[in-house]
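Reminder to self: tokens first, then the designed residues, so the page reads top to bottom the way the pipeline ran.
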């Protein structure tokens, strides 16, 4: 699959490498297309501008800061139309308060829903927002594979994202449509709260059944 990673931070680079190792043709994208010369040289993953990468991809991973995501998606809406877009973002509004990250969304709202409204023809799926970059690819934790919670309104898009999550070592739990974006995004607050409390970031969620 041709996959474009929009974002050059830890999340973008980690998922780019993981998906490349799974056999996909990956491009990583920045606004200028020239920020990751060393990374591209070392990994063989080409860099492009956001627009060029999105236009040439079958599937897109949105891996930018939450406060920049809506404007970026609005600007790329024509290129995102019809494509599966994995939304890894969280609506973080600032540093933690009493150990809890504040969000700029409120009750009944989510960044996922805002992005879907910004690019209505895109097929958004929330995933990879509830764990740190260090554990996103083939995590090795006691108890076995952790759970990646996903949501979105397009069933075929969720199936495609679920397959990629499984390739990267995750059990997948579909929790519903885009309306579930708020609860899934809140998992980032919970994941970070335990990290801030104990300075321990080597953990992930698992959904267990009898």
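Designed residues (210 positions):
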């Amino acid at each position: 699959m041709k996959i474009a990673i929009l974002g050059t931070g830890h999340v973008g680079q980690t998922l780019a490498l993981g998906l490349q190792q799974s056999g996909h043709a990956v491009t990583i994208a920045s606004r200028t297309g020239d920020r990751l010369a060393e990374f591209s040289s070392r990994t063989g993953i080409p860099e492009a501008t956001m627009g060029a990468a999105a236009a040439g991809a079958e599937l897109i991973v949105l891996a930018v800061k939450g406060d920049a995501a809506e404007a970026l998606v609005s600007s790329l809406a024509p290129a995102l139309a019809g494509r599966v877009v994995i939304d890894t973002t969280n609506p973080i509004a600032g540093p933690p308060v009493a150990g809890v990250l504040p969000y700029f969304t409120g009750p009944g709202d989510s960044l996922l829903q805002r992005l879907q409204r910004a690019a209505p023809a895109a097929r958004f799926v929330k995933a990879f927002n509830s764990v740190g970059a260090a554990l996103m690819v083939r995590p090795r934790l006691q108890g076995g594979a952790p759970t990646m919670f996903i949501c979105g309104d397009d069933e075929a898009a969720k199936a495609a994202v679920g397959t990629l999550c499984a390739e990267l070592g995750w059990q997948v739990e579909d929790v519903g449509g885009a309306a579930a974006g708020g609860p899934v995004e809140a998992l980032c607050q919970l994941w970070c709260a335990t990290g801030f409390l104990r300075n321990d970031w080597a953990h992930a969620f698992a959904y267990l059944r009898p």
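The mean pLDDT is 97.
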